[in-house]
Protein backbone atom coordinates (compact mmCIF):
# COMPACT_ATOMS: atom_id res chain seq x y z
CA UNK A 1 0.00 0.00 0.00
CA UNK A 2 1.51 3.41 -0.97
CA UNK A 3 2.39 5.81 1.84
CA UNK A 4 -0.40 8.19 2.64
CA UNK A 5 0.04 11.94 2.28
CA UNK A 6 -0.16 14.04 5.41
CA UNK A 7 -0.26 17.82 5.29
CA UNK A 8 0.55 19.73 8.48
CA UNK A 9 -0.62 23.35 8.32
CA UNK A 10 1.40 25.43 10.80
CA UNK A 11 4.92 24.21 11.62
CA UNK A 12 5.35 25.59 15.14
CA UNK A 13 5.63 24.03 18.58
CA UNK A 14 2.65 21.79 17.85
CA UNK A 15 2.90 21.14 14.11
CA UNK A 16 6.61 20.33 13.83
CA UNK A 17 6.75 17.49 16.40
CA UNK A 18 3.63 16.03 14.80
CA UNK A 19 5.20 16.22 11.34
CA UNK A 20 8.27 14.41 12.66
CA UNK A 21 6.25 11.66 14.25
CA UNK A 22 4.14 11.20 11.10
CA UNK A 23 7.29 10.99 8.94
CA UNK A 24 8.76 8.42 11.33
CA UNK A 25 5.59 6.39 11.07
CA UNK A 26 5.93 6.15 7.30
CA UNK A 27 3.65 8.93 6.09
CA UNK A 28 4.73 11.22 3.25
CA UNK A 29 4.64 14.56 5.03
CA UNK A 30 4.30 18.08 3.69
CA UNK A 31 4.43 21.10 5.98
CA UNK A 32 2.70 24.31 4.98
CA UNK A 33 3.53 27.53 6.79
CA UNK A 34 3.01 31.19 5.99
CA UNK A 35 6.47 32.06 7.32
CA UNK A 36 9.16 32.09 4.61
CA UNK A 37 11.79 32.13 7.33
CA UNK A 38 10.52 28.97 9.02
CA UNK A 39 10.15 27.15 5.72
CA UNK A 40 13.65 28.19 4.61
CA UNK A 41 15.12 27.11 7.96
CA UNK A 42 13.47 23.70 7.89
CA UNK A 43 14.43 23.17 4.26
CA UNK A 44 18.01 23.86 5.29
CA UNK A 45 17.70 21.33 8.13
CA UNK A 46 17.37 23.85 10.96
CA UNK A 47 14.84 23.44 13.72
CA UNK A 48 13.28 26.56 15.26
CA UNK A 49 11.49 24.52 17.96
CA UNK A 50 13.41 23.68 21.13
CA UNK A 51 12.02 20.18 21.53
CA UNK A 52 13.01 19.28 17.97
CA UNK A 53 16.66 18.84 17.05
CA UNK A 54 18.30 19.65 13.71
CA UNK A 55 19.05 15.93 13.42
CA UNK A 56 15.35 15.13 13.62
CA UNK A 57 14.61 17.68 10.90
CA UNK A 58 17.34 16.13 8.77
CA UNK A 59 15.85 12.67 9.36
CA UNK A 60 12.43 13.96 8.28
CA UNK A 61 13.88 15.61 5.17
CA UNK A 62 15.60 12.34 4.29
CA UNK A 63 12.22 10.62 4.58
CA UNK A 64 10.83 13.00 1.94
CA UNK A 65 9.50 15.88 4.06
CA UNK A 66 8.72 19.04 2.11
CA UNK A 67 8.27 22.40 3.79
CA UNK A 68 6.55 25.05 1.71
CA UNK A 69 4.61 28.29 1.80
CA UNK A 70 2.80 27.38 -1.40
CA UNK A 71 -0.26 25.18 -1.11
CA UNK A 72 0.01 24.31 -4.81
CA UNK A 73 3.12 22.30 -3.94
CA UNK A 74 1.17 20.25 -1.44
CA UNK A 75 -1.30 18.56 -3.79
CA UNK A 76 -4.21 16.36 -2.71
CA UNK A 77 -3.97 14.98 0.79
CA UNK A 78 -5.17 11.92 2.73
CA UNK A 79 -4.80 13.64 6.10
CA UNK A 80 -4.66 17.37 6.87
CA UNK A 81 -3.81 18.53 10.38
CA UNK A 82 -4.35 22.18 11.31
CA UNK A 83 -1.88 23.46 13.96
CA UNK A 84 -2.07 27.23 13.52
CA UNK A 85 -2.10 29.80 16.32
CA UNK A 86 -5.25 31.02 18.03
CA UNK A 87 -4.07 34.29 19.58
CA UNK A 88 -6.08 36.93 21.35
CA UNK A 89 -8.11 39.35 19.32
CA UNK A 90 -8.10 43.06 20.15
CA UNK A 91 -11.34 42.44 22.01
CA UNK A 92 -9.65 39.74 24.16
CA UNK A 93 -11.64 37.02 22.45
CA UNK A 94 -10.28 34.19 20.34
CA UNK A 95 -8.80 35.30 17.06
CA UNK A 96 -9.65 32.48 14.68
CA UNK A 97 -8.36 34.18 11.55
CA UNK A 98 -5.46 31.70 11.16
CA UNK A 99 -7.83 28.77 11.75
CA UNK A 100 -10.22 30.13 9.14
CA UNK A 101 -7.41 30.68 6.61
CA UNK A 102 -6.05 27.18 7.26
CA UNK A 103 -9.52 25.66 6.91
CA UNK A 104 -9.95 27.35 3.53
CA UNK A 105 -6.58 25.98 2.43
CA UNK A 106 -7.52 22.53 3.69
CA UNK A 107 -10.84 22.77 1.85
CA UNK A 108 -9.01 23.33 -1.42
CA UNK A 109 -6.67 20.37 -0.84
CA UNK A 110 -9.00 17.72 0.53
CA UNK A 111 -10.65 15.06 -1.57
CA UNK A 112 -13.19 12.31 -0.88
CA UNK A 113 -11.98 10.25 2.08
CA UNK A 114 -9.57 12.88 3.50
CA UNK A 115 -9.37 13.30 7.27
CA UNK A 116 -9.11 16.90 8.48
CA UNK A 117 -8.06 17.28 12.10
CA UNK A 118 -8.01 20.56 13.98
CA UNK A 119 -5.43 20.72 16.80
CA UNK A 120 -5.43 24.46 17.56
CA UNK A 121 -6.77 25.29 21.00
CA UNK A 122 -10.22 26.78 20.73
CA UNK A 123 -13.69 26.91 22.25
CA UNK A 124 -16.26 24.09 22.00
CA UNK A 125 -18.15 24.25 18.73
CA UNK A 126 -15.32 25.64 16.55
CA UNK A 127 -14.78 22.43 14.57
CA UNK A 128 -18.43 22.08 13.69
CA UNK A 129 -19.50 25.70 13.37
CA UNK A 130 -16.40 27.47 12.03
CA UNK A 131 -14.19 24.89 10.32
CA UNK A 132 -16.82 22.59 8.82
CA UNK A 133 -18.64 25.22 6.69
CA UNK A 134 -15.34 26.56 5.34
CA UNK A 135 -14.16 23.07 4.37
CA UNK A 136 -17.47 22.19 2.75
CA UNK A 137 -17.66 25.45 0.81
CA UNK A 138 -14.09 25.24 -0.50
CA UNK A 139 -14.30 21.53 -1.39
CA UNK A 140 -17.91 21.16 -2.46
CA UNK A 141 -17.97 17.97 -0.34
CA UNK A 142 -19.86 17.07 2.84
CA UNK A 143 -18.17 16.46 6.18
CA UNK A 144 -19.13 13.16 7.78
CA UNK A 145 -20.05 11.48 4.50
CA UNK A 146 -17.54 12.57 1.83
CA UNK A 147 -14.63 13.45 4.10
CA UNK A 148 -13.88 13.14 7.81
CA UNK A 149 -13.52 15.98 10.29
CA UNK A 150 -12.27 15.77 13.89
CA UNK A 151 -10.79 17.79 16.72
CA UNK A 152 -7.71 16.45 18.48
CA UNK A 153 -6.29 18.74 21.16
CA UNK A 154 -2.55 19.10 21.39
CA UNK A 155 -1.11 18.32 24.82
CA UNK A 156 2.49 19.11 24.14
CA UNK A 157 4.50 20.09 27.22
CA UNK A 158 7.63 21.82 25.93
CA UNK A 159 10.72 20.73 27.80
CA UNK A 160 9.08 17.70 29.40
CA UNK A 161 11.69 14.93 29.23
CA UNK A 162 9.23 12.12 29.99
CA UNK A 163 6.10 12.84 27.98
CA UNK A 164 6.44 13.70 24.33
CA UNK A 165 4.16 13.48 21.33
CA UNK A 166 4.34 9.68 21.05
CA UNK A 167 3.59 8.63 24.63
CA UNK A 168 1.05 11.28 25.60
CA UNK A 169 -2.47 9.88 25.10
CA UNK A 170 -4.22 11.65 22.22
CA UNK A 171 -7.89 12.60 22.42
CA UNK A 172 -9.89 12.44 19.19
CA UNK A 173 -13.47 13.55 18.70
CA UNK A 174 -15.14 13.51 15.28
CA UNK A 175 -18.12 15.24 13.84
CA UNK A 176 -19.67 11.77 13.50
CA UNK A 177 -18.59 8.36 14.83
CA UNK A 178 -17.13 7.59 11.39
CA UNK A 179 -15.04 10.78 11.64
CA UNK A 180 -13.80 9.64 15.05
CA UNK A 181 -12.93 6.25 13.53
CA UNK A 182 -10.83 7.93 10.84
CA UNK A 183 -9.03 10.10 13.40
CA UNK A 184 -8.43 7.07 15.62
CA UNK A 185 -6.87 5.17 12.73
CA UNK A 186 -4.54 8.06 11.84
CA UNK A 187 -3.43 8.99 15.34
CA UNK A 188 -3.18 5.31 16.30
CA UNK A 189 -0.27 5.10 13.86
CA UNK A 190 1.67 8.00 15.36
CA UNK A 191 0.74 7.83 19.07
CA UNK A 192 0.83 5.02 21.62
CA UNK A 193 -2.69 5.61 22.92
CA UNK A 194 -5.76 7.22 21.37
CA UNK A 195 -8.72 8.24 23.53
CA UNK A 196 -12.09 8.53 21.79
CA UNK A 197 -14.33 11.43 22.78
CA UNK A 198 -18.07 11.29 22.19
CA UNK A 199 -17.76 14.00 19.54
CA UNK A 200 -15.60 16.96 18.51
CA UNK A 201 -17.33 19.14 21.11
CA UNK A 202 -16.32 16.87 23.99
CA UNK A 203 -12.75 16.77 22.68
CA UNK A 204 -12.72 20.59 22.54
CA UNK A 205 -14.16 20.75 26.02
CA UNK A 206 -11.59 18.28 27.36
CA UNK A 207 -8.82 20.62 26.27
CA UNK A 208 -10.48 23.58 27.95
CA UNK A 209 -11.04 21.54 31.08
CA UNK A 210 -7.36 20.57 31.23
CA UNK A 211 -6.18 24.13 30.70
CA UNK A 212 -8.71 25.63 33.08
CA UNK A 213 -7.73 23.09 35.74
CA UNK A 214 -4.09 23.99 35.36
CA UNK A 215 -4.82 27.70 35.25
CA UNK A 216 -6.98 27.69 38.39
CA UNK A 217 -4.54 25.55 40.35
CA UNK A 218 -1.46 27.56 39.44
CA UNK A 219 -3.35 30.76 40.23
CA UNK A 220 -4.33 29.22 43.57
CA UNK A 221 -0.82 28.17 44.49
CA UNK A 222 0.58 31.57 43.42
CA UNK A 223 -1.89 33.20 45.78
CA UNK A 224 -0.87 30.70 48.47
CA UNK A 225 2.72 31.80 48.07
CA UNK A 226 1.70 35.37 48.84
CA UNK A 227 -0.02 34.19 52.04
CA UNK A 228 2.93 32.00 52.95
CA UNK A 229 5.42 34.81 52.56
CA UNK A 230 3.30 36.99 54.79
CA UNK A 231 2.92 34.16 57.33
CA UNK A 232 6.57 33.10 57.11
CA UNK A 233 5.68 29.60 55.95
CA UNK A 234 7.68 27.45 53.51
CA UNK A 235 5.04 26.69 50.88
CA UNK A 236 7.24 24.15 49.07
CA UNK A 237 7.46 22.10 52.22
CA UNK A 238 3.71 22.40 52.73
CA UNK A 239 3.13 21.18 49.16
CA UNK A 240 5.54 18.29 49.71
CA UNK A 241 3.56 17.22 52.75
CA UNK A 242 0.15 17.70 51.12
CA UNK A 243 1.25 15.70 48.11
CA UNK A 244 1.60 12.59 50.26
CA UNK A 245 -2.20 12.40 50.37
CA UNK A 246 -2.92 9.48 48.06
CA UNK A 247 -6.24 10.86 46.79
CA UNK A 248 -7.91 14.19 46.13
CA UNK A 249 -4.76 16.31 45.84
CA UNK A 250 -2.39 17.00 42.98
CA UNK A 251 0.64 19.21 43.62
CA UNK A 252 1.00 22.46 41.67
CA UNK A 253 3.95 24.78 42.20
CA UNK A 254 4.18 28.57 42.03
CA UNK A 255 5.37 29.73 38.68
CA UNK A 256 5.43 32.56 36.24
CA UNK A 257 1.97 33.79 35.36
CA UNK A 258 -0.89 31.48 36.00
CA UNK A 259 -0.59 28.73 33.49
CA UNK A 260 2.82 27.54 32.45
CA UNK A 261 4.01 29.06 29.23
CA UNK A 262 0.81 28.65 27.29
CA UNK A 263 -2.02 30.27 29.18
CA UNK A 264 -0.64 33.77 29.78
CA UNK A 265 0.52 33.97 26.21
CA UNK A 266 -2.27 32.18 24.47
CA UNK A 267 -6.00 32.28 24.46
CA UNK A 268 -6.99 29.21 26.45
CA UNK A 269 -8.97 31.22 28.92
CA UNK A 270 -10.38 33.86 26.63
CA UNK A 271 -11.58 31.12 24.32
CA UNK A 272 -13.94 30.13 27.08
CA UNK A 273 -15.61 33.39 26.21
CA UNK A 274 -16.49 32.03 22.79
CA UNK A 275 -20.07 32.45 21.73
CA UNK A 276 -21.42 29.65 23.91
CA UNK A 277 -19.47 29.69 27.14
CA UNK A 278 -19.12 31.61 30.34
CA UNK A 279 -16.03 31.71 32.48
CA UNK A 280 -16.29 30.01 35.84
CA UNK A 281 -15.86 32.66 38.55
CA UNK A 282 -12.43 31.53 39.87
CA UNK A 283 -11.11 31.54 36.34
CA UNK A 284 -12.39 35.05 35.74
CA UNK A 285 -10.71 36.17 38.95
CA UNK A 286 -7.43 34.60 38.01
CA UNK A 287 -7.78 36.25 34.63
CA UNK A 288 -6.07 35.47 31.36
CA UNK A 289 -2.43 36.35 31.62
CA UNK A 290 -2.95 37.74 35.10
CA UNK A 291 0.55 38.51 36.31
CA UNK A 292 -0.32 40.00 39.69
CA UNK A 293 1.32 37.34 41.86
CA UNK A 294 4.50 37.63 39.84
CA UNK A 295 5.48 40.83 41.56
CA UNK A 296 5.65 38.88 44.82
CA UNK A 297 7.17 35.84 43.22
CA UNK A 298 10.16 37.84 42.09
CA UNK A 299 11.35 37.62 45.68
CA UNK A 300 12.02 34.11 46.86
CA UNK A 301 10.27 33.18 50.07
CA UNK A 302 12.49 33.90 53.03
CA UNK A 303 12.32 30.45 54.59
CA UNK A 304 12.23 28.36 51.47
CA UNK A 305 14.22 25.26 52.24
CA UNK A 306 12.58 22.66 50.04
CA UNK A 307 13.43 22.46 46.36
CA UNK A 308 10.83 22.44 43.63
CA UNK A 309 10.94 18.85 42.32
CA UNK A 310 11.76 20.05 38.80
CA UNK A 311 14.73 22.01 40.06
CA UNK A 312 16.54 18.77 40.63
CA UNK A 313 17.99 20.04 43.89
CA UNK A 314 19.90 22.79 42.10
CA UNK A 315 18.60 26.13 43.20
CA UNK A 316 18.56 28.33 40.14
CA UNK A 317 18.55 25.50 37.63
CA UNK A 318 14.77 25.46 37.32
CA UNK A 319 14.71 29.22 37.35
CA UNK A 320 17.15 29.33 34.46
CA UNK A 321 15.07 26.80 32.57
CA UNK A 322 11.97 28.88 33.18
CA UNK A 323 13.72 32.05 32.04
CA UNK A 324 14.75 30.24 28.90
CA UNK A 325 11.23 28.96 28.29
CA UNK A 326 9.81 32.42 28.84
CA UNK A 327 12.24 33.97 26.41
CA UNK A 328 11.41 31.34 23.85
CA UNK A 329 7.72 32.06 24.15
CA UNK A 330 8.14 35.82 24.19
CA UNK A 331 6.30 36.52 27.42
CA UNK A 332 6.96 38.49 30.53
CA UNK A 333 9.32 37.07 33.11
CA UNK A 334 7.76 36.28 36.43
CA UNK A 335 9.34 34.29 39.18
CA UNK A 336 12.94 35.07 38.47
CA UNK A 337 13.13 38.61 37.23
CA UNK A 338 11.31 41.87 36.81
CA UNK A 339 8.20 41.63 34.71
CA UNK A 340 8.53 42.97 31.20
CA UNK A 341 6.34 43.49 28.17
CA UNK A 342 2.74 44.54 27.88
CA UNK A 343 1.55 42.45 30.82
CA UNK A 344 4.14 43.71 33.30
CA UNK A 345 3.28 42.74 36.83
CA UNK A 346 1.77 45.24 39.17
CA UNK A 347 2.45 44.74 42.85
CA UNK A 348 -0.62 43.78 44.72
CA UNK A 349 -1.39 45.59 47.93
CA UNK A 350 -2.08 43.37 50.88
CA UNK A 351 -5.20 45.49 51.33
CA UNK A 352 -6.62 43.33 48.55
CA UNK A 353 -6.30 40.19 50.65
CA UNK A 354 -9.50 38.87 52.18
CA UNK A 355 -10.50 40.80 55.29
CA UNK A 356 -9.93 37.98 57.87
CA UNK A 357 -6.44 37.39 56.50
CA UNK A 358 -5.65 41.11 56.65
CA UNK A 359 -6.80 41.21 60.26
CA UNK A 360 -4.59 38.25 61.16
CA UNK A 361 -1.62 39.76 59.39
CA UNK A 362 -2.13 43.11 61.10
CA UNK A 363 -2.13 41.34 64.48
CA UNK A 364 0.98 39.42 63.52
CA UNK A 365 2.83 42.55 62.42
CA UNK A 366 1.91 44.21 65.69
CA UNK A 367 3.37 41.24 67.59
CA UNK A 368 6.49 40.97 65.36
CA UNK A 369 7.25 44.49 64.14
CA UNK A 370 10.71 43.42 62.89
CA UNK A 371 9.26 41.02 60.34
CA UNK A 372 8.46 43.48 57.61
CA UNK A 373 8.07 42.66 53.94
CA UNK A 374 11.44 42.19 52.28
N1 LIG B 1 2.93 25.44 22.17
C1 LIG B 1 2.27 24.65 22.99
O1 LIG B 1 2.84 24.11 23.95
C2 LIG B 1 0.82 24.33 22.76
C3 LIG B 1 0.24 23.31 23.54
C4 LIG B 1 -1.09 22.96 23.33
C5 LIG B 1 -1.82 23.65 22.37
N2 LIG B 1 -1.26 24.67 21.62
C6 LIG B 1 -2.12 25.31 20.62
O2 LIG B 1 -1.73 24.85 19.33
C7 LIG B 1 -1.89 25.89 18.37
C8 LIG B 1 -0.56 26.16 17.67
O3 LIG B 1 0.38 26.57 18.67
P1 LIG B 1 1.94 26.61 18.42
O4 LIG B 1 2.55 26.75 19.77
O5 LIG B 1 2.37 25.50 17.53
O6 LIG B 1 2.06 28.00 17.60
P2 LIG B 1 3.36 28.55 16.88
O7 LIG B 1 3.20 30.02 16.82
O8 LIG B 1 4.61 27.96 17.47
O9 LIG B 1 3.25 27.94 15.39
C9 LIG B 1 2.18 28.22 14.53
C10 LIG B 1 2.72 28.25 13.09
O10 LIG B 1 1.59 28.44 12.23
C11 LIG B 1 2.00 29.30 11.17
N3 LIG B 1 0.79 29.87 10.57
C12 LIG B 1 0.02 30.88 11.03
N4 LIG B 1 -1.04 31.06 10.21
C13 LIG B 1 -0.94 30.12 9.25
C14 LIG B 1 -1.73 29.79 8.11
N5 LIG B 1 -2.87 30.43 7.85
N6 LIG B 1 -1.32 28.79 7.30
C15 LIG B 1 -0.16 28.13 7.56
N7 LIG B 1 0.62 28.40 8.62
C16 LIG B 1 0.24 29.39 9.44
C17 LIG B 1 2.94 30.28 11.84
O11 LIG B 1 3.81 30.90 10.89
C18 LIG B 1 3.69 29.38 12.84
O12 LIG B 1 4.87 28.85 12.28
C19 LIG B 1 -2.43 27.09 19.14
O13 LIG B 1 -3.83 27.07 19.07
C20 LIG B 1 -1.97 26.82 20.57
O14 LIG B 1 -2.80 27.44 21.53
C21 LIG B 1 0.05 25.00 21.81
Short summary:
By secondary structure, the protein is of the alpha/beta class.
How would you characterize the overall build of this protein?
Residues 267-271, 278-354 and 368-374 have low confidence and may be disordered. β5 (110-118), α5 (126-139) and β6 form a beta-alpha-beta unit. This protein starts with a strand and ends in a 7-residue tail after the last helix. With 374 residues, the chain is of the alpha/beta class. It is built from 13 helices and eight strands. The chain folds into two domains: 5-198, Rossmann fold (3-Layer(aba) Sandwich), CATH 3.40.50; 218-367, no CATH class. The longest helix is centred in the middle third of the chain and has 32 residues, at 200-231. Strands 3-2-1-4-5-6-7-8 form an eight-stranded mixed sheet, sandwiched between helices. The protein has helices at 15-24, 36-43, 54-62, 97-109, 126-139, 177-190, 200-231, 235-242, 262-265, 281-286, 292-297, 317-328, 355-367, and strands spanning 5-9, 28-32, 66-68, 77-82, 110-118, 148-151, 170-174, 194-196. The structure holds nicotinamide-adenine-dinucleotide.
